[in-house]
Amino acid sequence: MLNRRNFLKVAGSATAATALGVKTHALKVLPLNPAAPIAANDHIQLALIGAGIQGQGDTKTAVQVPGVKLVAVADCYNGRLEHSKELWGNDIFTTRDYKEILARKDVDAAIIGTPDHWHKQIAVDAMKAGKDVYCEKPMIHAHSEGPEMIETAKSTNRILQIGSQRVSSIVYAKAKELLASGAIGQLNMVSAHWDRNSSMGAWNYTVPLDASPETCDWDRFLGTAPRVPFNSEHFFQWRKWKAYGTGVAGDLFVHLFSGTHFITGSNGPTRAMATGGLRFWKDGRDANDVLMGLFDYPQGFNLSLRVNFVDGGEESEGLVFTGSEGTMEIGYNFVSVSRTPREKEPGLMIGTYTEAMQKRIRDAYHERYPASHPSGPPAVAVEKYAAPEGYRDSYDHFTNFFSAVRSRQPVVEDAVFGYRAAGAALLSNLSIDHGMVVKWDPETMKLV
User: Fold this and answer.
1) What pLDDT shows up at residue 313?
2) How far apart are CA 37 and CA 109, in angstroms?
3) What CA–CA distance (Å, rounded) separates 183 from 205?
4) Model pLDDT, residue 22
């Protein structure tokens, strides 16, 4: 059971062997049952709340899933409402007030792509209005918001999927299978990174020329955030400020936590230590551009994370799982295992002893290990599993969501999973803010 919620299975087929002896396998996504036509009354009417970069990107993917139609868009900037009509048709209902969308009976589900500080309230309002919700990560802006979202999803019997798409990836499903099979032995450490080296990567998104209090609903954007005069950079580059976003921890750490928790089956860490700072992008923001964290897991492994917005080199992301018998690396649409079986005997280090003592030790050693003989380093076997060219885990994540909307079966990243991933990520911010080790109970999902 690879936790694909019964509509996908992962198959590996050997396709090539490189000169270095790396065996490469192609991962395939196969439907468990032949695709059936979707009845007219089974189409899902979708709304987008928060039509920024991520929200529009999500929606472009979502409407590619068969049987899904966008009917409404809410955003606080007029230009994005106008562009939504350019993208999806003039018949799209648009509004600045998301509550007008939630009041519509023709909306079945909503994508929440707003700044982080709006996630909880809109998600709760949407579920209470009878809508299923796809909420972008991180699920929360503060730890106090998680329990209400979990309880609301339970009490309303609504589907709530969090948008860390890696957990629906065939690559991560294969990694989960490999780890469970003992491919790298006993896991003892996970190292993950996300490096960027560009202005866009550091959230310096372009501000439109008509940005003003007339074209932007500033009061609605602020919501529960401190009341400050209109600022177009705050509005369009909100990730740079803690009042609206959660910094690199909520933007990127949470992806790495989601992947780690999915692959290992863990509920989260028990302790967190973090450090970081504003090293390069000193442009008025108060969110750090470098963050490093260390986390202890009760399963007996440690997780180290690094995000760097001033990398000075190639932009990349990846995870390395280190075990007693090898390593497993996850990169862009691939997972590879380098396996080095442990030695069958401890070996000898006796050169500093007398010749007589060396002989006595050697004789005793060969008596205990009669099959021993000199040999070189153990051979390293490398297996690589790659997704098909053009594969998009975000499409699978939305397919997962809409399948759950129809079947009312659980999703792979529900409110509890999403809170445990976001809750773990935001421990980093708490550790830095308070200058101390932060303790967390991953089972009760509470700060200790």
Assistant:
1) 81
2) 21
3) 42
4) 80
